[in-house]
UniProtKB/TrEMBL annotation:
Stated name of the protein: Nucleic acid-binding protein
Length: 67
């Protein structure tokens, strides 16, 4: 892929889906199943390749995913 091309790092497709997941940390939060860590997931609609992002706005995440 050329430097000026953008798209999924795996297949080059340019359409994405976004979702949010929550996970437990370690220690007491794991023991009591407290989901205190949130991530945005950006996934390629073609091949399903996904990346997790924490603490960024949704626009920045898609830009990072697509290159």
């Amino acid at each position: 892929m050329k430097d000026d091309e953008r798209g999924c790092p795996k297949c080059g497709h340019t359409e994405t889906e976004m979702d949010e997941i929550a996970t437990t940390g370690s220690g007491l939060s794991k023991m009591f199943d407290i989901q205190n860590r949130k991530f945005m997931v950006v996934s390629c609609t073609n091949c399903g390749y996904s990346e997790l992002y924490r603490g960024q706005s949704s626009g920045n995440m898609v830009d990072l995913f697509l290159g």
